[in-house]
Specification:
This protein is α+β, with helices and mostly antiparallel strands. The chain folds into two domains: 51 residues, no CATH class; 71 residues, no CATH class. It is built from three helices and five strands. The chain has a three-stranded antiparallel beta sheet, with no helix packed on it. Strands 4-5 form a two-stranded parallel sheet. The chain is elongated. It starts with a strand and ends in a 25-residue tail after the last helix.
């Protein structure tokens, strides 16, 4: 298999694959907003096209003993602060993963957040040398 940087010429093939398998999702703009787009291919052509884009997760610690109206107002201020910071860093999306609190999730959706499919995360390792390979 070959790993290489993505080129504009790869986009039509990726669109074809996307339409065939992921038509319910928006096609990513790999040429804009990504640190790097890449292609995984073999002698039969493209297997995977992907990229790494900046992403941000909003993390908060909330005093759950406070009344929900006050917490709701504080969440709105949190959202404003996070959106401002995200804009300053050139991010185009912020993520909030709400654990065990449907009221928080409903509040966030009422104020502009939208549901996402389940997400998974992985910590980026500290690279000890330039020659480290992915295990």
């Amino acid at each position: 298999m070959n790993v290489r940087g993505m080129k504009k010429e790869d986009i039509p093939k990726l669109r074809e694959i996307h339409e065939k398998h992921f038509s319910d999702l928006e096609f990513p703009d790999f040429m804009n907003g990504f640190y790097c787009g890449f292609i995984i291919e073999d002698e039969n052509g493209v297997i995977i096209g992907g990229g790494l884009r900046p992403s941000a997760e909003i993390l908060i610690v909330t005093d759950k003993e406070r009344d929900m109206t006050t917490v709701g107002r504080a969440l709105i201020e949190t959202q404003k602060a996070a959106l401002y910071i995200g804009h300053k860093f050139g991010l185009n999306e912020l993520n909030a993963f709400v654990k065990d609190n449907d009221a928080y999730a409903r509040h966030l959706v009422r104020h502009g957040f939208y549901p996402r499919p389940n997400a998974l995360a992985i910590k980026v390792p500290k690279w000890e040398s330039q020659n480290r390979t992915i295990d």
